[in-house]
């Protein structure tokens, strides 16, 4: 019950702030859209060398128009955008536990949350869940806009999609809890976490189902790389989401090896993350670093 | 409250260790690759606070006041000893105890600035397991009690510092706690806001039987607000007495004699019961500052002998006044290197 009460409080707070600062919310979506469209153009039209801003704008329009009929371009563009969004989603969720926690310690909000009888884990679980829902809604709007702009069709299979988003969330918060626990004790670790968060943006952007087509016999090192990608919380999530949303795999995703990895990873990361967070929270109260920065 | 003590600290000890790499040592100003510093924040402290009491923790910066308060709320674990709130040991019942304790920590952003006071109370109420109609009624009641009802729908960022502090107190009280821990509640506030907060804390203790533990540097706050005061210095409790008793220890000792000329102090010092005699230097009128012992009989006899001696010497006694002791003087005397033995 405690989780739902805290979640309700977080949801109301987020909604009030979004409504009260609606211009900032709207501008966030516009900036995200512009940034992603520029990114897509950069990826797909790397040969073009425009010289000024006006030329860039006109070339973006022409390129998108001329490539609209090209289905391969549309799929690639949407996959890149999806990968980038998932990367940003991972960046944000892990950031909630690292930079977010550092900021909370600085303002004293962390001590206030620690005074909640529901406990710090429940509070952060609810907080991250609301942040995830918020991010997913925002990214969905952006993805639909981009998909429409590049003339791609997204496959919105609700059941596989919801299952994948839940598993992605559990993968990420497990990792986030582990990093968050470390931040509680060693506040400066947040800077190191930044490097990991940046890796979280890159991996989903480039990873795809093609990792299963790698010629392991020719290059055994690729097996190690594939193994690492399976351990990273966002890689399998990106593969599955790209397959469902762009490739239209639908329910067949439940039989895919990446889906299996996602379940195993979700379980392992969440268990390890929460256990670490509990232990490190207790240690930070012993060291007196809970409210210190 | 079912137990004799609302808050009890039994032989609490806390040492903080800090480790720095590639730093400059503050003590000898030398660069060091590795430097470990140890601070004994709380040194075997025993304290007990009864329900209905406003208990003051006084001490200079770094004396261990905030650490003690944080240990009472479970935000810091003691190295040794036990902390009890309403008869329950804090470490093993932390989450239960948080329903009984309201905490206002110094200098923290307790409230969320883009929200209104009412929304803040709803948010923190939910976080602290208060919900539904109870939450709504309690939130409105608290805002009225503290004098923020007319600001309940104004965003916190538009409120003054005093109003924000009042809201912080409301947030601490939203669970209707039996114990309120206030760390520097009036720091940086104007006279009216400070007065209003003091009145509310007194009212809660007197009328609702709540126990309040207040840490402060402000002696006037402690003197007006607290029924009992503990002075902490370097992590140790120097003294712990009811406020009046603490002031009385020093109040009855110092008398100022205004005279027509300054007499020789040596014969006065020889009078039995006179502890010290100092001429009043730098004053408009000549005079003496005479210190007597706390014992009433001895003091009365010595005071009578002093007046008799001055009369015999042909001095004109213009006035005799007992110096009013403030908590600030007591505090300075208690925490000075030459600590008074009580």
Describe what this molecule looks like in 3D:
The complex is a heterodimer of chains A (293) and B (342). Chain A has one domain (2-287). By secondary structure, chain A is an all-alpha fold. Chain A is 78% helix and 0% strand. With 342 residues, chain B is of the alpha/beta class. Chain B contains eleven helices and 14 strands. Chain B has helices at 65-72, 94-97, 117-127, 132-146, 161-173, 191-208, 219-225, 243-251, 265-269, 296-312, 327-335; strands spanning 7-24, 31-49, 54-58, 80-85, 88-89, 101-104, 179-183, 211-216, 228-233, 236-242, 254-259, 276-279, 287-291, 317-322. The longest helix of chain B is centred in the middle third of the chain and has 18 residues, at 191-208. Chains A and B meet through α1, α6 and α12 of A and β1 and α3 of B.
Portion of residues in beta strands of chain B equals: 25-35%
Q: What is the strand tally of chain B?
A: 14
Low-confidence stretches of chain B: 338-342
CATH superfamily of the largest domain in chain B: P-loop containing nucleotide triphosphate hydrolases
Computed Rg of chain B = 25 Å
Number of helices of chain A: 12
Coarse structural class of chain B: alpha/beta
Strand order of the largest sheet of chain B: 6-7-8-3-9-10
Assign the structural class of chain A, choosing from mainly alpha, mainly beta, alpha/beta, alpha+beta, or little secondary structure: mainly alpha
Cα-atom Rg of chain A, whole angstroms? 20 Å
Order of helices and strands of chain A: HHHHHHHHHHHH
CATH architecture of the largest domain in chain B: 3-Layer(aba) Sandwich
Span between N and C termini of chain A? 32 Å
Order of helices and strands of chain B: EEEHEEHEHHHEHEHEEHEHEEHEH
Oligomer type: heterodimer
Whole-number mean pLDDT of chain B: 86
Roughly what percent helix of chain A? over 70%
Number of domains of chain A: 1
Which geometry of chain A do the CA atoms define?
globular
Taken as a percent bin, the fraction of beta residues of chain A is under 5%
Q: Unreliable segments of chain A (pLDDT under 50, ≥5 consecutive)?
A: 47-51
């Amino acid at each position: 019950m405690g989780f739902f009460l805290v979640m309700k409080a977080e949801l109301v707070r987020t909604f009030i702030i979004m409504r009260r600062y609606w211009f900032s919310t709207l501008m966030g979506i516009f900036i995200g859209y512009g940034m992603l469209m520029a990114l897509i153009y950069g990826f797909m039209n790397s040969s073009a060398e425009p010289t000024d801003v006006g030329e860039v704008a006109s070339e973006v329009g022409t390129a998108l128009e001329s490539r609209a009929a090209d289905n391969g371009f549309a799929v690639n563009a949407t996959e890149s955008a999806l990968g980038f969004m998932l990367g940003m989603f991972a960046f944000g969720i892990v950031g909630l536990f690292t930079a977010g926690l550092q900021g909370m310690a600085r303002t004293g909000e962390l001590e206030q949350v620690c005074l909640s009888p529901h406990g710090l884990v429940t509070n952060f679980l609810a907080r991250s869940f609301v942040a995830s829902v918020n991010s997913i809604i925002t990214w969905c709007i952006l993805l639909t806009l981009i998909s429409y702009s590049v003339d791609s069709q997204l496959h919105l299979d609700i059941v596989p999609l919801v299952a994948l988003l839940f598993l992605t969330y559990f993968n990420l918060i497990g990792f986030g809890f582990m990093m968050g626990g470390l931040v509680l004790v060693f506040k400066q670790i947040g800077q190191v976490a930044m490097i990991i968060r940046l890796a979280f943006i890159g991996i989903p952007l480039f990873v795809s189902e093609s990792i299963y087509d790698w010629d392991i016999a020719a290059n055994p090192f690729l097996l190690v790389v594939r193994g690492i990608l399976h351990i990273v919380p966002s890689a399998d999530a990106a593969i599955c989401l790209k397959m469902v949303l762009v490739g239209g795999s639908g329910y067949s995703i439940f039989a895919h090896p990446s889906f299996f990895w996602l379940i195993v990873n979700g379980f392992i990361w969440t268990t390890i993350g929460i256990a670490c967070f509990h232990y490190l929270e207790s240690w930070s109260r012993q060291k007196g670093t809970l409210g210190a920065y | 409250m079912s137990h004799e003590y609302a808050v009890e600290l039994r032989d609490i000890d806390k040492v903080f260790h800090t480790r720095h790499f590639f730093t400059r040592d503050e003590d000898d100003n030398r660069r060091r690759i590795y430097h470990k510093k140890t601070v004994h924040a709380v040194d075997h402290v025993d304290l007990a606070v009864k329900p209905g009491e406003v208990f003051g923790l006084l001490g200079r910066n770094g004396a261990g006041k905030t650490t003690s308060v944080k240990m009472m709320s479970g935000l810091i674990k003691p190295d040794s000893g036990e902390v009890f709130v309403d008869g329950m040991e804090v470490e093993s019942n932390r989450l239960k105890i948080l329903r009984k304790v309201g905490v206002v920590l110094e200098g923290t952003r307790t409230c969320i600035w883009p929200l209104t006071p009412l929304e803040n109370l709803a948010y923190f109420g939910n976080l602290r397991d208060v919900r539904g109609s109870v939450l709504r009624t309690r939130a409105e009641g608290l805002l009225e009690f503290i004098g923020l009802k007319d600001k309940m729908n104004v965003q916190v960022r538009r409120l003054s510092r005093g109003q924000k502090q009042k809201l912080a107190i409301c947030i601490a009280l939203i669970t209707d706690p039996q114990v309120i821990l206030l760390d520097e509640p009036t720091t940086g506030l104007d006279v009216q806001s400070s007065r209003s907060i003091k009145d509310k804390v007194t009212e809660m203790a007197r009328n609702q039987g709540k126990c309040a533990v207040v840490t402060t540097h402000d002696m006037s706050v402690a003197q007006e607000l607290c029924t009992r005061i503990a002075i902490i210095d370097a992590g140790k409790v120097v003294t712990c007495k009811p406020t009046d008793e603490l002031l009385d220890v020093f109040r009855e000792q110092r008398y100022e004699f205004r005279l027509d000329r300054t007499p020789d102090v040596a014969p006065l010092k020889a009078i039995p019961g006179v502890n010290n005699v100092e001429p009043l230097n730098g004053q408009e009128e000549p005079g003496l500052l005479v210190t007597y012992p706390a014992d009433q009989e001895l003091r009365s006899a010595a005071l009578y002998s002093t007046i008799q001696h001055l009369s015999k010497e042909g001095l004109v006694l213009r006035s005799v006044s007992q110096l009013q002791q403030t908590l600030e003087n007591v505090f300075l005397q208690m925490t000075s290197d030459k600590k008074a033995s009580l």
